[in-house]
């Protein structure tokens, strides 16, 4: 089991390591922006790996069991969503004018905003499914579509 957890951690941190080693920017950004970007490099693989956790891969599910994987998926989904939210908050707080500037890359800002809204919907409906009185099939559909929006 330790091997699987080590692989999970390595996959989650690999993009951050690659970015740190191969930073293509000729000019340093403010520390807050760098921190926000670093959080994004951790959040993206953490979010994408959620698909692997629920994909029912025999190699993984046979070792852990589906119940354990679903619990880990729920916990890591919350962790990944928190990291993604911190990424957005840190980046916007560090460079609010850059995000709102007319010459800012509107595709990045818009897609980030849409992904953040998808994440809020995903987490809210997952945590509050019973309280919101959502039928499982409806919730599962919303969950699947929101997950695609986030990805």
TL;DR?
With 151 residues, this protein is mainly alpha-helical. Helices cover 80% and strands 0% of the residues.
Tally the helices.
7
Computed over alpha carbons, the radius of gyration is 17 Å
Structural class: mainly alpha
Largest sheet entry: none
What is the β-strand count?
A: 0
Order of helices and strands: HHHHHHH
Low-confidence sequence ranges: none
Mean pLDDT: 84
**Fraction of residues in H or I helices:** over 70%
Strand content: under 5%
Cα-to-Cα separation, first versus last residue? 27 Å
Which outline best applies? flat
What does this 3D model show about the protein?
This protein is mainly alpha-helical and 151 residues long. The chain has 7 helices and no strands. It has helices at 2-21, 31-53, 58-64, 66-94, 96-100, 106-127, 136-150. Helix 6 (106-127) packs antiparallel against helix 7 (136-150). The protein is flat and about 50 Å long. The chain starts with a helix and ends with a helix. The model has no long low-confidence stretch (mean pLDDT 84).
Features:
151 residues; mainly alpha; 7 helices; 0% strand; flat
List the helices and strands and how they pair.
Blueprint: H1 2-21, H2 31-53, H3 58-64, H4 66-94, H5 96-100, H6 106-127, H7 136-150
Helix pairs in contact: 1-2, 2-4, 3-4, 4-6, 6-7
């Amino acid at each position: 089991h330790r091997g699987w957890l080590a692989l999970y951690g390595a996959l989650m941190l690999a993009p951050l390591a690659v970015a740190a080693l191969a930073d293509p920017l000729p000019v340093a950004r403010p520390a807050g922006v760098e921190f926000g970007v670093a959080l994004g490099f951790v959040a993206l693989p953490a979010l994408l790996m959620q698909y692997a956790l629920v994909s029912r891969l025999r190699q993984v599910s046979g070792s852990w069991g589906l119940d354990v994987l679903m619990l880990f998926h729920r916990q890591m989904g919350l962790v990944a969503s928190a990291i993604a939210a911190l990424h957005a908050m840190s980046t916007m707080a560090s460079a609010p004018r850059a995000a709102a500037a007319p010459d800012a890359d509107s595709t990045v800002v818009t897609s980030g905003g849409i992904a953040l809204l998808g994440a809020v919907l995903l987490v809210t409906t997952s945590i509050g499914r019973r309280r919101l009185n959502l039928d499982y099939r409806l919730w599962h559909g919303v969950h699947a579509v929101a997950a695609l929006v986030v990805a």
